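Just scan my protein:

. . .
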Amino acid sequence: MSRATRPAGFLYVAATATGGRKLGLRHADSERQLADQLRRDRLVLMRTWRLPAALASERRLRLRDQSALNDQLAQLLSRGVPLVEALEVTASVVSPPCRPVVNAMRDAVSSGASFADACADVGTFDDVTVAVYRAAERTGDLAGACSQLATTMRRRLAVAGKAATLMIYPAIVLVIAVIVSTIMLVGIAPKMLGDVASELGDNAKLNFFSSAVLALGNFLRANGVWVLLGVAVVVTLLVIARKEVAALIANASRRIPLLRDVVLAQESSRFFSVMAAMTRAGIPLADALGVSAGAIGHPKLREQLNRLRQRLIEGGVLRLLIDDVEALPLATRKLLIAAERAGDLETAFDQLAEDMAALAATRSERALAVLEPGLIICLAVVIGSLVMAMFIPLITAASQIE
């Protein structure tokens, strides 16, 4: 399978060994290959629907599966187990949707392809991982490279977990605010404010905010179907343009004072983890910098690292050039200079990756501690405003009746 040809997404119905039916989603080059994949899992393909390219995301191994795959391969290969047999065992430790990927790698290796080529052909690994595998095969230390990659994946999982916590909490608060506000606008505000207006008759005069809340509530009640349809269209567009939306969110997070330090620590941890894996695999420093810089998304850090790589290629010395990478903390640059003089960059990269992961976790907790009371205040302001919009006219009506 050529890497340039991306697998298609298929929604399928298959028959199980017990006579039941299973609905699922998988990626394959064709319906025939999909049937072969399902046959290995003791399923019989009955019907398929090919998904549009915009809705069929690339099949990618999750970080957890990549960590399990590399950890298992490192243990087996270090004990002398042949690669094909090691891949057969590894297929049992990844999640079921990823087993066809590992089986495809095993088939490619058993047909004579190198492990790096097999990983590149299945299209589930990034360029950094494939480059590490390729260099490790040249040096004969594939087990060591897998062990280093497993460590790198575990660090990324820890950092991603902190980042997810930082993003999930605001999302939960936002969803709660939207649900409660919608219930108040659609179910409570029109009835309460309508009752007040009908009771006062010609003397009823709502303030501007209460009138706006009443008008919005009536509009949502009268056009609920169209509003839901509009929301569905917006969600669909966001799903189709998810890559662009993710890029916008990432760009915004690098500019917000509360989040930019967290993002920089995360990007630095990823960079040093990749550098540790690539230097262990014997990749030259300039080549490792080129691949590692492309693996991070921080524009300033990537630009400075690319400039550092260019100067190294032109004959520069790392310890004289590292100070120009101002996106990295001063202590980090000094440690790299000392490590370069001692000839132990691999250990320095590994230690810095661990330190940056810990720093990212600390900064995430600090940002969450600052964000939490702010979100509670915003929630109180939104819901409190709606409550006041409903109760102020009620109190006014009561005073007028008296």
Remarks:
- Residues 164 and 396 are 46 Å apart (CA to CA).
- The two ends are 83 Å apart (CA to CA).
